[in-house]
């Protein structure tokens, strides 16, 4: 079991070979008219040079006289990148535990929903150059809309609460071609370079 889990993680890292720290903030709503200002922070894998599946995690807090952690999420999706473009689209699904940003029940509930990241590269082009880079960094502007449903714990009259948010922020990323399947080729170019093509 452990060997299988390690193999899976290595395969994911081999395909993506990039990670990012994302911080966003914006309005969130729960139920019918309950709104609050949310702030989310998370770590995620990121596709580099070619489109790929990704996984990540996110914690969401409520900004109200301090930071109150309201929920924790696991995110899985697909990162669409395109050669020569600074725009990336990352749709996915979320599963988590906790409660809505605006507290409408007490206790720990379960969450299921969908979210996406629309990203625009501001700084860094290490994964957009036809060159083998051992390490490079980048900064992206992120728009993060999401929607889903909270299932509260037993004893709460309402069985399901709709939840949504639209947040904006930045992603600070790091990548390397050491384990990239593209090995220094531009985005979505799946051909592998041979020893004759290497400098």
What is this entry, summarized?
This protein is mainly beta and 199 residues long. The protein is built from one helix and eight strands, in the order H-E-E-E-E-E-E-E-E.
Structure description:
This protein is mainly beta and 199 residues long. The protein has one domain (2-175): Porin. It is 8% helix and 54% strand. It has an eight-stranded antiparallel barrel with strand order 1-2-3-4-5-6-7-8. The longest helix is centred in the N-terminal third of the chain and has 15 residues, at 2-16. Residues 11-15 and 190-199 have low confidence and may be disordered.
Task: Supply the key terms.
elongated, 8-stranded antiparallel beta barrel, mainly beta, Porin, 1 helix, about 200 residues, 8 strands
Task: Walk me through the topology.
Layout: H1 2-16, E1 18-30, E2 34-45, E3 52-63, E4 67-79, E5 87-98, E6 109-123, E7 136-151, E8 161-175
Question: What is the H/E order?
Answer: HEEEEEEEE
Strand-residue proportion: over 45%
Report strand order across the widest sheet: 1-2-3-4-5-6-7-8
Q: Number of domains in the coordinates?
A: 1
Instruction: Report the span from N to C terminus.
Output: 41 Å
User: How would you sum up the major sheet?
Assistant: 8 strands, antiparallel, barrel
Uncertain segments are: 11-15, 190-199
Multimeric state of these chains?
Answer: single chain
Q: Just give the CATH class.
A: Mainly Beta
CATH architecture: Beta Barrel
Class derived from helix and strand content: mainly beta
Assign a percent range to the helix content.
Answer: under 10%
The tally of strands reads 8
CATH topology term: Porin
Number of helical regions: 1
Q: What number is the mean pLDDT? A: 80
């Amino acid at each position: 079991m452990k060997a299988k889990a390690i193999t899976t993680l290595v395969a994911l890292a081999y395909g993506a070979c990039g990670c990012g720290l994302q911080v966003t903030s914006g309005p969130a709503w729960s139920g019918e008219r309950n709104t609050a200002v949310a702030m989310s922070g998370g770590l995620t894998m990121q596709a580099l040079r070619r489109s790929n599946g990704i996984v990540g995690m996110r914690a969401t807090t409520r900004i109200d006289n301090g930071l109150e952690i309201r929920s924790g999420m696991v995110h899985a999706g697909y990162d669409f990148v395109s050669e020569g473009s600074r725009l990336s689209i990352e749709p996915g699904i979320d599963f988590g535990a906790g409660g809505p940003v605006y507290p409408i029940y007490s206790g720990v509930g379960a969450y299921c929903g969908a979210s996406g990241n629309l990203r625009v590269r501001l700084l860094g082009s290490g994964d957009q150059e036809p060159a083998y880079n051992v390490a490079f960094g980048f900064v992206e502007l992120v728009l993060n809309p999401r929607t889903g449903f909270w299932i509260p714990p037993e004893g709460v009259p309402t069985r399901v609460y709709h939840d949504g948010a639209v947040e904006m922020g930045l992603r600070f990323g790091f990548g390397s071609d050491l384990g990239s399947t593209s090995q220094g080729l531009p985005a979505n170019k799946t051909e592998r370079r041979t020893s004759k093509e290497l400098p």
